[in-house]
Amino acid sequence: MKKFIQMTLLTIVLNLISAFFVVNFTNEIPKSINPNDYSTSKYFFEIVVGVLFAPYIETWILYFGVKSSTSLFNRSNLLTVFVGALPLIFLHGLISLSKVVAIASGFFVQAHYLNNLLNENCSLKKTIQVVFLIHAINNALAYLAGYAFGKLEI
C-alpha cells in the first residue's frame, strides 16, 4: 500500500510540475472544464470516459508496451520502462505536443511501477488494477481541477 501511495503521489506531482513548465514556457493553458458549456449528461459522459474507460484501455496499452519491451531489454529496467511507455505517450502526442510534455513523466512512473509489479510476479489482475487506479486517480484530479478553475473568473 505504501508503494502504491508513493507512485500515485509521484505521478501527480510530476504531472503538476510538467504542466507548470508547459504553461510557463509555451503560454498554452490547458483547457479547463467550464460547467456552463456542458449538459449534465455530456459532462458525466466525459468524466466516465476520461476517468474510467480511457485509463483502463491505456493501462492495457502500457502493459503490452512494457511486457514487449521486457523481452527486448531484459537486463535494462530503464530501457524497458522508457520504451514501454512510448506507445502511450505517442498516442497522447497526436492530440497535443505540449500535453505530451505535461503527462510523459506520469506514464514513465506508471510504466516503472508496472514493470516492478511484473518483476515481483504479481498477478496480471492485480497489476492492471493497481496501475489503472493510479491513472484513474490522476485523471480524476485533473478533471476536478479543470472543473474548479473553469468556475473561477479571472
Can you put this structure into words, describing what you see?
Helix content is 82%, strand content 0%. It is mostly helical and 154 residues long. The chain has one domain (2-151). α3 (77-93) runs antiparallel to α4 (97-119) and α4 packs antiparallel against α5. The model has no long low-confidence stretch (mean pLDDT 78).
Structure summarized in a few sentences:
The protein has 154 residues and is mostly helical.
Question: Can you write the helix and strand succession as a string?
Answer: HHHHH
Q: Quick one: overall form?
A: globular
User: Which secondary-structure class do the elements indicate?
Assistant: mainly alpha
SS elements, strand count: 0
Oligomer: single chain
Report the major sheet: none
Strand percentage, roughly?
A: under 5%
Overall structural domain count: 1
Distance between the termini: 40 Å
Individual helix count: 5
Regions with little confidence, pLDDT below 50 for 5+ residues = none
- Average pLDDT number: 78
Annotate the secondary structure layout.
Layout: H1 2-26, H2 40-72, H3 77-93, H4 97-119, H5 124-151
Helix pairs in contact: 1-4, 1-5, 2-3, 2-4, 2-5, 3-4, 4-5
Which terms would index this structure?
single chain; 154 residues; mainly alpha
